[in-house]
Protein backbone atom coordinates (compact mmCIF):
# COMPACT_ATOMS: atom_id res chain seq x y z
CA UNK A 1 0.00 0.00 0.00
CA UNK A 2 1.61 3.21 -1.15
CA UNK A 3 1.04 6.42 0.79
CA UNK A 4 2.09 10.03 0.64
CA UNK A 5 2.71 12.39 3.48
CA UNK A 6 5.48 14.12 5.40
CA UNK A 7 8.68 12.28 6.39
CA UNK A 8 7.62 12.84 9.99
CA UNK A 9 4.43 10.82 9.48
CA UNK A 10 6.30 8.07 7.68
CA UNK A 11 8.74 7.96 10.58
CA UNK A 12 5.85 7.38 12.97
CA UNK A 13 4.85 4.35 10.95
CA UNK A 14 8.34 2.86 10.59
CA UNK A 15 9.33 3.76 14.14
CA UNK A 16 6.54 2.11 16.02
CA UNK A 17 3.05 1.76 14.60
CA UNK A 18 1.91 -1.25 16.53
CA UNK A 19 -0.59 -2.61 14.09
CA UNK A 20 -1.09 -1.56 10.50
CA UNK A 21 -3.63 -2.58 7.94
CA UNK A 22 -6.06 -0.85 5.66
CA UNK A 23 -7.88 2.24 6.90
CA UNK A 24 -9.56 4.94 4.88
CA UNK A 25 -9.36 8.44 3.51
CA UNK A 26 -9.49 10.10 0.11
CA UNK A 27 -7.71 11.94 -2.67
CA UNK A 28 -10.64 13.60 -4.35
CA UNK A 29 -11.96 17.11 -3.87
CA UNK A 30 -12.05 20.68 -4.98
CA UNK A 31 -9.32 23.26 -4.61
CA UNK A 32 -11.43 25.02 -2.02
CA UNK A 33 -12.95 23.55 1.10
CA UNK A 34 -16.24 21.77 0.55
CA UNK A 35 -19.45 23.60 1.37
CA UNK A 36 -20.70 23.55 4.92
CA UNK A 37 -22.64 20.55 6.21
CA UNK A 38 -25.05 20.67 9.11
CA UNK A 39 -24.41 18.37 12.04
CA UNK A 40 -24.93 17.94 15.72
CA UNK A 41 -27.09 15.34 17.59
CA UNK A 42 -29.78 15.39 14.94
CA UNK A 43 -29.72 14.31 11.33
CA UNK A 44 -26.82 15.95 9.52
CA UNK A 45 -26.92 16.91 5.89
CA UNK A 46 -24.68 18.80 3.51
CA UNK A 47 -25.42 21.52 1.00
CA UNK A 48 -23.67 20.37 -2.15
CA UNK A 49 -23.35 22.30 -5.34
CA UNK A 50 -21.25 20.17 -7.66
CA UNK A 51 -19.32 16.93 -7.37
CA UNK A 52 -15.57 17.12 -6.68
CA UNK A 53 -13.47 17.65 -9.79
CA UNK A 54 -11.53 14.59 -10.87
CA UNK A 55 -7.95 14.53 -9.60
CA UNK A 56 -8.43 17.78 -7.67
CA UNK A 57 -6.84 18.43 -4.29
CA UNK A 58 -8.27 16.45 -1.40
CA UNK A 59 -9.87 18.09 1.64
CA UNK A 60 -7.02 18.85 4.02
CA UNK A 61 -8.81 19.66 7.27
CA UNK A 62 -11.27 17.77 9.47
CA UNK A 63 -14.06 20.19 8.59
CA UNK A 64 -13.53 20.13 4.81
CA UNK A 65 -13.31 16.32 4.84
CA UNK A 66 -16.48 16.10 6.93
CA UNK A 67 -18.32 18.55 4.68
CA UNK A 68 -17.28 16.59 1.58
CA UNK A 69 -18.65 13.38 3.04
CA UNK A 70 -21.93 14.94 4.13
CA UNK A 71 -22.43 16.55 0.72
CA UNK A 72 -22.00 13.12 -0.81
CA UNK A 73 -24.50 11.61 1.62
CA UNK A 74 -27.05 14.27 0.71
CA UNK A 75 -26.67 13.31 -2.96
CA UNK A 76 -27.25 9.67 -1.93
CA UNK A 77 -30.39 10.58 0.02
CA UNK A 78 -31.73 12.78 -2.78
CA UNK A 79 -30.95 10.26 -5.53
CA UNK A 80 -28.63 12.73 -7.27
CA UNK A 81 -25.46 10.65 -7.32
CA UNK A 82 -22.50 11.98 -9.29
CA UNK A 83 -20.17 8.97 -8.91
CA UNK A 84 -17.01 11.11 -8.80
CA UNK A 85 -13.58 9.70 -9.67
CA UNK A 86 -14.67 6.28 -10.88
CA UNK A 87 -12.99 5.92 -14.25
CA UNK A 88 -9.66 4.75 -15.77
CA UNK A 89 -8.21 8.25 -15.51
CA UNK A 90 -8.74 8.24 -11.76
CA UNK A 91 -7.36 4.71 -11.50
CA UNK A 92 -4.16 5.85 -13.19
CA UNK A 93 -3.97 8.97 -11.03
CA UNK A 94 -3.94 7.01 -7.77
CA UNK A 95 -2.06 3.94 -9.00
CA UNK A 96 1.33 4.94 -7.56
CA UNK A 97 0.25 6.60 -4.32
CA UNK A 98 -2.84 7.44 -2.32
CA UNK A 99 -4.01 10.21 -0.01
CA UNK A 100 -7.50 9.32 1.24
CA UNK A 101 -9.25 12.09 3.18
CA UNK A 102 -11.38 9.91 5.41
CA UNK A 103 -11.33 6.70 7.42
CA UNK A 104 -14.65 4.88 7.76
CA UNK A 105 -15.13 2.17 10.35
CA UNK A 106 -18.47 0.52 9.64
CA UNK A 107 -20.37 -2.75 9.78
CA UNK A 108 -20.08 -5.58 7.25
CA UNK A 109 -23.80 -5.20 6.48
CA UNK A 110 -24.32 -5.46 2.72
CA UNK A 111 -26.75 -2.54 2.80
CA UNK A 112 -24.20 -0.05 4.14
CA UNK A 113 -21.39 0.39 1.57
CA UNK A 114 -19.55 3.58 2.64
CA UNK A 115 -18.34 4.49 -0.85
CA UNK A 116 -21.95 4.60 -2.05
CA UNK A 117 -23.45 6.09 1.11
CA UNK A 118 -21.07 9.07 0.77
CA UNK A 119 -20.94 9.08 -3.06
CA UNK A 120 -17.14 8.97 -3.13
CA UNK A 121 -14.61 7.69 -5.65
CA UNK A 122 -11.50 5.58 -6.02
CA UNK A 123 -8.79 6.56 -3.54
CA UNK A 124 -11.06 8.71 -1.37
CA UNK A 125 -11.56 6.50 1.68
CA UNK A 126 -9.85 3.95 3.86
CA UNK A 127 -12.75 1.61 4.65
CA UNK A 128 -12.81 -0.95 7.43
CA UNK A 129 -15.81 -3.17 7.97
CA UNK A 130 -16.35 -5.58 10.84
CA UNK A 131 -19.45 -7.15 12.36
CA UNK A 132 -21.07 -4.41 14.43
CA UNK A 133 -18.02 -2.21 13.65
CA UNK A 134 -16.24 -3.77 16.62
CA UNK A 135 -12.54 -3.11 17.10
CA UNK A 136 -9.58 -5.14 18.28
CA UNK A 137 -5.87 -4.15 18.18
CA UNK A 138 -5.39 -5.01 14.50
CA UNK A 139 -8.49 -2.97 13.59
CA UNK A 140 -7.28 -0.04 15.69
CA UNK A 141 -3.97 -0.28 13.87
CA UNK A 142 -5.84 -0.16 10.60
CA UNK A 143 -7.75 2.94 11.70
CA UNK A 144 -4.49 4.59 12.75
CA UNK A 145 -2.86 3.96 9.38
CA UNK A 146 -4.32 6.90 7.46
CA UNK A 147 -4.00 9.64 10.11
CA UNK A 148 -0.51 8.55 11.13
CA UNK A 149 1.04 8.02 7.70
CA UNK A 150 -0.69 10.31 5.23
CA UNK A 151 -2.41 12.91 7.39
CA UNK A 152 -5.98 11.67 6.89
CA UNK A 153 -7.96 14.30 8.84
CA UNK A 154 -11.20 12.45 9.56
CA UNK A 155 -12.39 9.17 11.09
CA UNK A 156 -16.08 8.22 11.05
CA UNK A 157 -17.44 5.36 13.18
CA UNK A 158 -20.64 4.46 11.36
CA UNK A 159 -23.32 2.38 13.09
CA UNK A 160 -26.57 1.61 11.33
CA UNK A 161 -30.26 0.86 11.71
CA UNK A 162 -31.31 -2.79 12.27
CA UNK A 163 -27.78 -4.04 12.79
CA UNK A 164 -27.90 -7.85 12.84
CA UNK A 165 -24.61 -8.18 14.70
CA UNK A 166 -25.72 -5.89 17.50
CA UNK A 167 -29.13 -7.57 17.67
CA UNK A 168 -27.54 -11.02 17.98
CA UNK A 169 -25.07 -9.78 20.60
CA UNK A 170 -27.80 -8.11 22.61
CA UNK A 171 -29.85 -11.30 22.71
CA UNK A 172 -26.85 -13.50 23.52
CA UNK A 173 -25.76 -11.28 26.38
CA UNK A 174 -29.29 -10.82 27.68
CA UNK A 175 -30.03 -14.58 27.63
CA UNK A 176 -26.48 -15.54 28.68
CA UNK A 177 -26.28 -17.93 25.74
CA UNK A 178 -22.99 -17.66 23.81
CA UNK A 179 -23.12 -17.30 20.06
CA UNK A 180 -21.57 -20.10 17.98
CA UNK A 181 -17.93 -20.09 16.89
CA UNK A 182 -16.08 -16.81 16.77
CA UNK A 183 -19.32 -14.84 16.69
CA UNK A 184 -19.13 -14.73 20.47
CA UNK A 185 -16.06 -12.50 20.19
CA UNK A 186 -18.28 -9.87 18.57
CA UNK A 187 -20.73 -10.13 21.45
CA UNK A 188 -17.93 -9.73 23.99
CA UNK A 189 -16.62 -6.66 22.19
CA UNK A 190 -20.12 -5.20 22.40
CA UNK A 191 -20.55 -5.95 26.10
CA UNK A 192 -19.63 -2.39 27.26
CA UNK A 193 -22.35 -0.97 24.98
CA UNK A 194 -24.80 -3.58 26.26
CA UNK A 195 -24.10 -2.63 29.87
CA UNK A 196 -24.58 1.05 29.10
CA UNK A 197 -27.83 0.27 27.29
CA UNK A 198 -29.19 -1.48 30.37
CA UNK A 199 -28.67 1.68 32.44
CA UNK A 200 -31.38 3.51 30.51
CA UNK A 201 -34.92 2.97 29.30
CA UNK A 202 -35.22 2.63 25.56
CA UNK A 203 -38.17 1.91 23.28
CA UNK A 204 -35.76 0.01 21.04
CA UNK A 205 -32.79 -1.19 23.13
CA UNK A 206 -30.98 -2.72 20.15
CA UNK A 207 -31.09 0.57 18.26
CA UNK A 208 -29.94 2.38 21.38
CA UNK A 209 -27.07 -0.09 21.71
CA UNK A 210 -25.97 0.64 18.13
CA UNK A 211 -25.75 4.36 18.91
CA UNK A 212 -24.06 3.83 22.27
CA UNK A 213 -21.48 1.52 20.73
CA UNK A 214 -20.67 4.02 17.97
CA UNK A 215 -20.19 6.76 20.56
CA UNK A 216 -18.04 4.56 22.79
CA UNK A 217 -15.84 3.44 19.90
CA UNK A 218 -15.33 6.99 18.68
CA UNK A 219 -14.49 8.16 22.20
CA UNK A 220 -11.94 5.36 22.58
CA UNK A 221 -10.27 6.31 19.28
CA UNK A 222 -10.33 10.00 20.19
CA UNK A 223 -8.35 9.27 23.37
CA UNK A 224 -6.11 6.64 21.77
CA UNK A 225 -2.46 7.20 22.71
CA UNK A 226 -1.37 7.76 19.11
CA UNK A 227 -4.44 9.57 17.77
CA UNK A 228 -5.15 11.87 20.73
CA UNK A 229 -2.23 14.24 19.95
CA UNK A 230 -3.58 14.74 16.42
CA UNK A 231 -7.05 15.44 17.82
CA UNK A 232 -5.67 17.97 20.31
CA UNK A 233 -3.81 19.80 17.53
CA UNK A 234 -6.96 20.00 15.44
CA UNK A 235 -5.46 17.85 12.69
CA UNK A 236 -7.93 15.00 13.18
CA UNK A 237 -11.61 14.64 14.07
CA UNK A 238 -13.26 11.38 15.14
CA UNK A 239 -17.01 11.38 14.48
CA UNK A 240 -19.62 8.87 15.60
CA UNK A 241 -22.58 8.52 13.25
CA UNK A 242 -25.68 6.45 12.51
CA UNK A 243 -26.96 5.37 9.11
CA UNK A 244 -30.67 4.94 8.41
CA UNK A 245 -31.48 2.03 6.11
CA UNK A 246 -34.91 3.55 5.52
CA UNK A 247 -33.80 6.98 4.33
CA UNK A 248 -30.11 6.62 3.49
CA UNK A 249 -29.32 9.57 5.73
CA UNK A 250 -26.24 9.70 7.96
CA UNK A 251 -27.00 11.20 11.35
CA UNK A 252 -24.07 12.64 13.27
CA UNK A 253 -24.08 11.55 16.89
CA UNK A 254 -20.95 13.18 18.29
CA UNK A 255 -17.65 14.78 17.38
CA UNK A 256 -18.51 16.80 14.26
CA UNK A 257 -15.62 19.21 13.59
CA UNK A 258 -16.16 22.95 13.62
CA UNK A 259 -15.80 24.95 10.43
Observed structural traits:
single chain; 259 residues; alpha/beta; Beta-carbonic Anhydrase, Chain A; five-stranded mixed sheet; 5 strands; 11% strand
Please characterize this protein's 3D structure.
- The chain has a single domain (7-254), classed as Beta-carbonic Anhydrase, Chain A, CATH 3.40.1050.
- Helix content is 39%, strand content 11%.
- It is built from 10 helices and 5 strands, in the order αααβαβαβαααααββ.
- The chain has helices at 7-16, 62-78, 88-94, 114-117, 137-150, 164-175, 183-189, 191-198, 205-222, 228-232, and strands at 102-106, 125-129, 154-160, 237-243, 250-254.
- The protein has a 5-stranded mixed β-sheet, with helices on both faces.
- A hairpin with a 6-residue loop joins β4 (237-243) and β5.
- α1 packs antiparallel against α5 (137-150) and α8 packs across α9 (205-222).
- The longest helix has 18 residues, at 205-222.
- Mean pLDDT is 83; it is low at 1-51.
Amino acid sequence: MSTTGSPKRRAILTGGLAATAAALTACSGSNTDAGKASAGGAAATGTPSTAPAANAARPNSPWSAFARLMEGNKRWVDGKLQHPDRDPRRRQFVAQEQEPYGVILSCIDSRVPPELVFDTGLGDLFVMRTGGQVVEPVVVGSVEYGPMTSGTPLIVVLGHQRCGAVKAAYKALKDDKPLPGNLQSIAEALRPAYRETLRGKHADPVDAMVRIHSNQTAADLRTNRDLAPLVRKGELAVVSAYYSLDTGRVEVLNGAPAA
